[in-house]
Amino acid sequence: MALTRHGAGPDRDGETGEVGALPVPAPVPAPVPAPVPLSDDDVTAPASASTMAVLDDEHAIVRGLWRGIDVFRCLALAYAAWSAWERHEQIAHLLGAVAILAILAGWTLAVTLWPRRTVRAYAIELAIGCSAILATRLVDDPDVILAGAKTIPSIWPTAAVIGFAVLRGWRGGLAAASLVAACSFIEVVEPTANTVSNSIFGLLLGGCIGYCVDLARSSHAALAEAMRLDAARAERDRLARTVHDGVLQTLAFINRRASDLGGETARLGAMAGEQERILRTLVSQTDLAEVGRAVSGDADLRGLLRHVEGAGVQLVSPADAVLLPRRVADEVVAAVEAALENVRRHAGADARAWVLLDDDGDEIAVTIRDSGQGVPAGRLEEAVGQGRLGVSSSILGRLADLGGTASIVSGPAGGTTVELRIPNHRTTRRTNRHHGRRTDIGSGTATGAPTPGRGGS
Amino acid sequence: MTQQEDAMRRRGSSTLPEHIRVVVADDHPMWRDAVARDLADAGFEVLATADDGRSAVARTRATAPDVLVLDLNLPGLTGAQVCAALAAAGVPTRILILSASGDQQDVLDAVKAGALGYLVKSAGREEFLAAVRATAAGEPVFTAGLAGLVLGEFRRVKAAGGGTPERPVPELTERETEILKYVATGMGYKEIAATLFLSHRTVQNHVQNIFGKLQMHNRVELVRFAMERGLDLADPT
């Protein structure tokens, strides 16, 4: 449909007939997409533009409610006029009633033509509604009111109550409804059954609609956040493709050729190799940690442990996310860091280390193995006997706090293996509180309860 | 130099090094030439090179080499698609993935589709040559990183409830899981054999069984995928 605003286009009648006299808020203009760097396969550009549109847009439910309020206000005015006409013989000061209705009609017309969704506008509307309720006292005889006659504005003030519910959530809705109820009670002096039930109805309406709006807003915020993350990831993927196709290949090539040449060149090549490794780690792992946190509040151990990878340390992980609650994951990361610090200090200069993440459904196991000298038999016993386990106790203590276990084993071929086991909260949530202190140390070389201290040795 | 590389070289040298015929597929000319030259210098016969997925399949089918050294991110077809196409065509060539990409899902897909191993391009020349020899001998080139991915894949399939009752997906035995975890923490086969009091050969057999089961997963998944979409499996292409 052509959006011709000037001149009578052929489809103009159909356009106005569709919505009748009710104004529709002007559509929010779609923001101009931010300039995106040109590339051959620029698939991310439309995605980011639509993301922006959603981010800037008011939620559809909220927009619908505003439109509903506009319609409701007009209908409520018609109803109030009709109610007054029905009982015009009862009304003591008919002119006063007409004046009240005229004020309501004036405001209704004004906000219908120039909609304002502000607290100020709705505060004015609420004040008009409440004044109209109280003014009923002036135009009606007290015995008519006591007999249960309707107020002059009737249900008209409810529009303001819903307006506050949309603006300020359930608190706003309840507050506005309370004010209207209070005015009704003052107006009748002696509450009738109608007054009570209408007030309860108003409070329910304000509270429920406000609550729905709160929910809609928060879910909209979550959706917008998810879309933002998605767009960020798409952009990252686009960069990653470029990096894979060019930079990584070149760095790896330099590294390979330079190591053949030897000497100073080999050192340069090693630098290129180091950069290649860092860059590959950076671009290859899609940031599931962030998305995971946004969706479930969990953190992906793979993302949190990325930083431990280095020249001598390799992180070995599955293709899927290894999720743990954020607090638990942070403790596990600290334990892994402690274990690697142990490797760095004791395993020897050219020792390498591997960190394996394994989620078998019931437990998440993190295995840290090094190719170093291993722990001489008796050394651990000695340390336990002297009440100092240093880094080891920091590992054992942390895992015990998490309801998990830790074991330290020295293999027959040298090297030390530290295995951390953490119950998987998704499958063992109900039985989570068994504090498994099955903390064994050493492959038959030493057994001891973990000391509570976490200090260094 | 890790134990694994040592193990790989020993495995490699135990097979016949001479006259292993290789096809190299890589879209980066610099890399393709360097890899081909390294292979030629070390006594391998480079039958052909290819710079995209389709020509990699066509030239491998035409020359039937012992080993295809395959870049994961070729234009045209993905690494997994190349592996699947060669398997469907019944080409006996063994495939070694060599890639700058660290994309774990791509690597896993290619291995499930039949590749025998995976090396990052930053691996040293000796490590690479040893890997080609091992691949030619039909031995999986099992780096720690790949073992972690394979372990994760078995966990995922198990958590997803396995296959259909008629076609259960194979699961790992406890011993196989144990070996996989050892490989994933950087242990060589010899070291694993010493730790578990097994022979080197037995460890190798276990590793080959693990690969067989993984590729079985792929077939079960393909069958399920085909049945869900009503595809006819009689035509492998």
Descriptive notes:
The complex is a heterodimer of chains A (457) and B (237). In chain A, 59% of the residues lie in helices and 9% in strands. Chain A is an alpha+beta fold and 457 residues long. Chain A folds into two domains: 42-284, no CATH class; 298-457, Histidine kinase-like ATPase, C-terminal domain (Heat Shock Protein 90), CATH 3.30.565. In chain A, the strands form two sheets. Chain A has a five-stranded mixed β-sheet with strand order 2-4-5-7-6, covered by helices on one side. In chain A, strands 1-3 form a two-stranded antiparallel ribbon. The radius of gyration of chain A is 35 Å and the shape is elongated. The N and C termini of chain A lie far apart (77 Å). By secondary structure, chain B is α/β, with parallel strands linked by helices. Chain B folds into two domains: 3-139, Rossmann fold; 146-229, Winged helix-like DNA-binding domain superfamily/Winged helix DNA-binding domain (Arc Repressor Mutant, subunit A), CATH 1.10.10. Chain B is built from ten helices and five strands. Chain B has helices at residues 3-14, 29-41, 53-63, 79-88, 104-112, 125-136, 144-159, 174-184, 189-196, 200-229, and strands spanning 21-25, 45-50, 67-70, 94-99, 117-120. A five-stranded parallel β-sheet of chain B has the order 2-1-3-4-5, sandwiched between helices. In chain B, helix 4 (79-88) links the parallel strand 3 and strand 4 (94-99). The radius of gyration of chain B is 18 Å and the shape is globular. The A-B interface holds A 244-245, 248-250, 252-253, 255-257, 259-260, 273, 276-277, 280-281, 284-285, 314, 316-320, 352-354, 356-361, 367, 369, 371, 411-413, 417 and B 2-3, 28, 30-31, 34, 73, 100-105, 108, 120-122, 124-125, 144-145, 147-149, 151-153, 155-156, 158-159, 181, 184-187, 191, 194-195.
Task: Please render the helix and strand layout as text.
The complex is a heterodimer of chains A (457) and B (237).
Chain A: H1 12-19, H2 44-56, H3 60-86, H4 94-113, H5 119-139, H6 142-146, H7 158-188, H8 193-261, H9 263-284, H10 288-296, E1 298-300, H11 301-304, E2 313-316, E3 323-325, H12 326-346, E4 353-359, E5 363-370, H13 379-385, H14 391-401, E6 405-410, E7 416-423
Helix pairs in contact in A: 2-8, 3-4, 3-7, 4-5, 5-7, 7-8, 8-9, 8-10, 12-14
Chain B: H1 3-14, E1 21-25, H2 29-41, E2 45-50, H3 53-63, E3 67-70, H4 79-88, E4 94-99, H5 104-112, E5 117-120, H6 125-136, H7 144-159, H8 174-184, H9 189-196, H10 200-229
Parallel strand pairs in B: 1-2, 1-3, 3-4, 4-5
Helix pairs in contact in B: 1-6, 3-4, 4-5, 5-7, 7-8, 8-10, 9-10
